[in-house]
Amino acid sequence: MQNIVPMTRPALELRTGQHLTLTPQLQQSIRLLQLSTLDLQTEISQALAENPMLERSDERVEAEPEAPPSPEASMDDLSARDGEVRQEEMPGAGGVYPDDLPEREDRARSETLREHLLSQLGLTRLGSRDAALVTLLIDELDENGYLASPLDEILGWLPAEAEIDIDELRAALSLLQSFDPPGIGARDMSECLLLQLRNPDPERLRESEDPAVLACARELCTHHLNLLASGNMTRVRDAVACDDTTVRRAHALIRKLDPRPGRPWTVPAADYAVPDVIVRKNRQGWQVVLNPAAVPRLKVNALYAELLGNQRESQHAGLHAQLQQARWMIRNVEQRFDTILRVAQAIVAHQTAFFSEGPAAMRPLILRDIANELGLHESTISRATTQKFMLTPFGTLELKHFFGTGVATDGGDVASATAVQAVIRRLVADEDRRKPLSDNQLTQRLADQGIVIARRTVAKYREAMRIPPASLRKAHAAQA
Q1: What are the residue boundaries of the structural domains of the chain, listed by start?
Q2: Using CA atoms, how far apart are residues 333 and 473, in angstroms rounded to an integer?
Q3: Which residue has the higher pLDDT, 393 or 80?
Q4: CATH superfamily ID and name for 406-479
Q5: How is residue 21 annotated by DSSP?
Q6: pTM of the shown model
Q7: DSSP character string of 380-449
């Protein structure tokens, strides 16, 4: 007997679902906020050249010190937290620094890191949903190329109706980490270096041709970076169970890696910094105003708008679309500067002592403090402070400069990392050049002033200020 298999009939089925999408207006709003002033001017110049409905206004716009109305909250809906710079503590004098940067330095200056990564994303065959997730992760990278927030936190800030799971984010991050430059999208320094050792270039990293050296370097990056930073090569050799030659070559290989893969795409502030806001002191105290020279004055071409007002939209759909784009541009530019001004005003309110007394009076401040105060998302605060500058009595400073975690003091108070760095800088400036202060001695001097922190933290702050270790300072003094 033959078995008769019933045939299934084809049927049509309608299903409803949610997809991760960003409207063009929202995309433009986010993009304009994260641009620097000079990049914004370039964006506006391009818009003026392409859209006849948009033109510059000759009317002078006076900056108002009062807080502007709150920007639209929708800007934050699909953004993940962009917290403080997630750069792990850099190793000490014997630590990890690239001997030289790759030849991409000149090429990187012609585009931003985001543009460089998006151009690679455009070469993939991802669907719109996956491409949106990778774009979201790209937007959460800090200036060093690190992912600024853990994936579970990013997932928590995405709308529930999008039905995104952690595996989708992991897959998106894995793809991002395969892009150039090697090490991009890492969550800490160990992962950054390991990504660069995944498929090392034998021409630039000759030591990687030896499998034993490559395996030793990977083991060091995975488990023993702090030990490697100490410079105690005997302990390093014992920890990885390798011979002296292999350890030395592995160390040389690691030193050729770049712990900040996004850095070549970051132009130093001194090359282009234009203050977005200006801090002035009057009878009421320190006040913040927008820099009129940085605020573009735009308007819709009144003649074209009037002509289109008498025509049906179907007759001139293209021109009506350009009119709408012009209005979006004007509204989003205004919102950008409103957000920057509000954030700057909140920063000045928190850091009043800095403007009166200098860097040593800087108070601890994190993005969440300002975000909670203004009712905005932390990623919005991060974008509003990255490559945005404030003219102060102590020079033109990036708004990011005013953020820093705190360290406890003996008196029960808290000092910001910036204030501690100012004290270290002063101690080094006043030291005996023939007998410079070691990190241990700096730690003790700070403790004498009531600032109790670890020697390793002192070394990290010293390196962040590009102050050589005591041995090199003594050698430089002897040669002078």
Answers
A1: 23-70+268-357+367-404, 105-265, 406-479
A2: 48
A3: 393
A4: Homeodomain-like (1.10.10.60)
A5: -
A6: 0.51
A7: HHHHHHTT-EEEETTEEEEGGGG-B-EEEBTTS-EEEHHHHHHHHHHHHHTS-TTSPPPHHHHHHHHHHT
